[in-house]
Amino acid sequence: MSTVANSLLRNVAIIAHVDHGKTTLVDALLHQSGVFRSNERVAERALDNIELERERGITIMAKNTAVRYNDFTINIVDTPGHADFGGEVERTLTMVDGVLLLVDASEGPLPQTRFVLRKALERGLLPIVVVNKIDRQDARATEVLSEVYDLFIDLDAKDDQIDFPVLYTNAKAGTATTNVDEPGHDLRPLFDAIVAHVHPPSGERDKPLQLLVANLDSSDYLGRIAIGRIFNGTVQVGDSVVVAKLDGDVQRTRVTKLFKFDGLKRVVIDHAAAGDIVCLAGLNDITIGETITDPEHQSPIPPIHIDEPTVSMVFGVNTSPMSGTDGRYVTSSNLRDRLDRELVGNVSIRVEDTDSADQVKVIGRGELQLSILIEMMRREGYELQVSRPQIVTLTVPGGTEEPVEELVIDVAEEFQGVVIAGLGMRRATMTKMVNHGSGRVRLEFRIPTRGLIGFRSQFLTDTKGTGILNHLFSGWEPWHGPIAGRPSGVLVADRIGKATAFALYNLQERGEIFIEPGTAVYQGMIIGENARPDDMDVNVAKEKKLNNMRSSTAEEGIRLIPPRALNLEQAIEFIDEDELVEITPKTIRLRKRILAANQRRTTKR
Ligand SMILES: Nc1nc2c(ncn2[C@@H]2O[C@H](COP(=O)(O)OP(=O)(O)OP(=O)(O)O)[C@@H](O)[C@H]2O)c(=O)[nH]1
Ligand SMILES: [Mg+2]
Question: Which of 1, 56, 122, 173 has the fewest beta carbons closer than 10 A?
Answer without folding.
Answer: 1
